[in-house]
Amino acid sequence: MTAARMGVSLAGIELRNPVMTASGTFGYGEEFSACVDLERLGAFVTKGLSMRPRAGNPTPRIVETPAGMLNAIGLQNIGIDAFIEKKLPFIRSVNTPCIVNFFGDTVEEYAEMARRLGEIPEIAALEMNISCPNVKHGGIVFGSDPASAAEVVAACREATGKPLIVKLSPNVTDIVSMAGACADAGADALSMINTLIGMAIDLDNRRPALANVTGGLSGPAIKPVALRMVWAVARAVKLPVIGIGGIASATDAIEFILAGATAVQVGTASFITPDAAQRISEDMESWMRRQGESDIRNLIGALRV
Amino acid sequence: MQFASEILSNAEISPAYWRVRLTAPREFIGARPGQFVMVRVAPGIDPLLRRPLAIFDVGPAAGDAPAWFEMLYKVVGKGTAMLSALRESDGVDILGPLGTGFDLGDDDREKLLVGGGVGLAPLHLLATALARRKSPVRLFAGGRTRGDLLCIDEFEALGVECHCATEDGSFGARGLVTTALVRHLDAFDGKAALYACGPDGMLRALARIAAGRALPCQVSLEGRMACGVGACLGCVTAGREHSAQTPDYRRLCVEGPVFESSELKWGD
Q: What pTM value is reported for the model?
């Protein structure tokens, strides 16, 4: 049987398959280059970047929970200058679209980041993080109020012609209105969901398990929540959606595509199996052939409700 | 490398402490002392993450028998409890060897290994490597009680002189292992280098002892870890000059788990 067509286009970028790695779970790509063939991925998304280097939160920063984990890394990153100097050469060497995740403290800083990153030809698209739950200025201010979200997205839209993906927080009352505000402000795509705020307690010493007290929940535990949100947004907003949340297998990924996602990101699963994203994309193709499906695009939003 | 491994043996060697031997690819024999592996104890999603465990020993393939490695672990939670329930021929998925190892140092220094409880685990492979070299090797092993002192006879079989200490006095000297070490250092006028793994308090005390006597001191740290390959930034520890303004977090899994104690920031 002939291979199924796995390519999709998203916000003007052609992806060889719909599987990307999620920001914060794949470093800057090179950390995984020994165990993953990056050129088998649809795209890879780098760790959230800010204007200046950030120390991140004190430890403990992670704790395992049933079928998931909480993290409060606090957006530790090397800053845009070191990124350009030290990480771009590797990114340039990989024949796979690189999407750079970024954030700022203010609207002006977001726009300046978008402008600077937008000038770098090796970067295929920008992913705006307006949803980190672990720092005061990680964008959550912008990610939880539709008017603020619209303002910061519009400022970045003004600053760059690069495809602009907005990563949405699930920690909101109405994710559809957040998505609509970002769409109206000029976003090209939405990635969702970021982590759900949660907490864990170490009973032996009656303290929070994380130094930050709360953290972001990821992993298979959040998949049903993510699927619901992707489905609700995809049918209400005319922008491509990148589904994220607990994807650990090809069938998980295909569920997101049926719910309306054009592509998916694999996050926490890469921590357990470094080549998870590559395996998932390969297994999706096998699944398609077994199902007699010839083109992944036919499955996008094909949920029978 | 990631590989499917089969358990060759898995036994409780002291209350709550287990020793497991697993098959490994031929290349695994190149694991350096101080490196670790990430163990996936079950294929499902609970527990979700791998467990970081030190490599205690390695052995080559012989005839039809595959290469192997051993780990010494303490049952402290769900993951290690599940590992202890596995039996011969059960499978586990392994990622490793990972991290930097110990630097074997100069031959003109006496090597003083200091281990607390299950912290002895990475020191055995180190002792094996050091025993092949010229300088004398001593082990200072400490624990609350005699059951915390593991595999001492195997260190002795390597030609390592062992000094044991227990807090309850049930084996060796009564008191802390660092007290036994200081006693030795006070009586010794040659050059020495420290290598340590154990509880935070012990390592902090050693860092102070090493700084006070200008001794090189390599410590192997433990920490919560999700990926083991440098991506999650969950396992960081602060470097000596770290501050919020000048961040210097080191990843245990990539820059460590072994660090020169003088390069780290130690709390009070």
A: 0.94
